[in-house]
Amino acid sequence: MLENIPANREFDAYQAFVLDCKIAWTRQMFPLLRDRFEIVAKDVQPNTAADVAALMEGDTTAQMFGWFERHLQRMKYSGLRGLTVHYNRYRDEIRRALNSDLPAHLLQLDPDFQQPEYYTSIDIHQHPGGVWSDEIAGFVYERGAQSTAPMLKKSESLFHRMKTQAMTRASHEVKKVVDLGCGWGGSTRPYYEDHPEVDVIGVELSEPCLRVAALRAAELQAQNVRYRQADATETGLNGGDTDIVTSTMLLHEMPPSHIKAVFREAHRLLAPGGLSIHLDFLMRDDPFRVWVHNGHSSRNNEPFMVPLNGMDLLAAHKEAGFDAVEIVPFEEFDGALSPDNTAWRFPWTMIIARKPGSSGNQDL
Ligand SMILES: C[S@@+](CC[C@H](N)C(=O)[O-])C[C@H]1O[C@@H](n2cnc3c(N)ncnc32)[C@H](O)[C@@H]1O
To answer: What CATH number is associated with residue 338?
Structure first.
């Protein structure tokens, strides 16, 4: 079915062009922007993103940088041969594939599910209708993820790296993992694929994303995963028996009140000694990069990136019942954190805590 969607040279060429422009923006335009900033900041000491914004006001490199970021993303989804425009033509094929019979255990949907208001109020990532309102949105999102972070050749390698971090830090045997905000299942797959002995549950708001995640698991004949439609703050899963609660790129998509509730739910789900580990974006120590990050937040329709960046994560974890939190940079590809890497990158960061208790190493 999905394999019946024919290759289309114009679409492939258009998307390759957009991606190549994004790579040029990443590798060439971003270092140029930094050079411009260093020239204008030579005699002053900007301490905050607001200081940098004031200095760069009216700078044409900054304007070009922002224009490209905003409009390449718009072209990717909504342009002449954008993802939503193109796949709309194959709606019937995609719908049939997503509604095909799957093993019953794989997918738990809630027909009465009410989406949170923050979630429906914005077209996240400039994806028209967000990733939830159109039946083919999950499929489109899966395709779109191939060019979200253009320095990554394959998004899978990022997911595998994160899974390895989590499994290595879990100090006792891992039997159960919950992946919150699992999207189309990219972040969940390494757990169930590489660890058939582990019981894996993906939790997600969006039915269209969950349908793609379940279809991919069925294609792989996975026996140890299930996907559940629920809010990450209230999963409805049993408490006290999960070894790892994880998320990838979830926290920056929700307001702080929701983030705090996710930490509380993670604490409830975890067994004593269990690991809470979230991969997200934090940029706090470089005012220039904070300014760029804040700009990305508004240009990519991701308004909660800024409040996440300002949150007191230690207090939020303590309030949820954790004793401590560790904030660790995450290397999404070899050399990503090297000072020699002058390209733009997301400020990937792991937010790690451990539920106090007897079974497992109490060190972070
Ligand atoms: C940027 S995507 C990341 C998806 C996946 N973890 C990955 O790395 O590809 C964030 C996901 O979180 C989901 N999400 C947002 N708020 C949520 C919530 N309150 N509960 C569960 N999922 C949520 C969105 O629908 C979206 O699929």
So the answer is: 3.40.50.150
| Residue closest by Cα to atom 22 of ligand 1 | 181
Residue 41 buriedness (CB in 10 A; 0-12 / 13-18 / 19+) = middle
Do strands 199-204 and 176-180 pair parallel, antiparallel, or not at all (unpaired)? parallel
Task: Please say whether the beta carbons of 300 and 72 come within 8 A.
Answer: no
Question: Does residue 166 lie in a domain region?
Answer: yes
Q: Give the three-class secondary structure for 226.
A: strand
Domain count, the chain: 1
Average pLDDT, the chain: 94
Please check the confidence at residue 272 and state whether its pLDDT lies above 90. Answer: yes
Overall pTM > 0.85: yes
Q: Is residue 190 part of a domain?
A: yes
182 lines ligand 1 (CB under 6 A): yes
161 bridge partner residues: none
Token couple for 98: 């997503």
- Residue 210 in any domain: the answer is yes
Q: What is the pLDDT of residue 3?
A: 77
Alpha carbon of 19 to ligand 1 centroid (Å): 23
Residue 345 belongs to what domain range?
A: 147-354
Asked if pLDDT for residue 149 goes beyond 90, the answer is: no
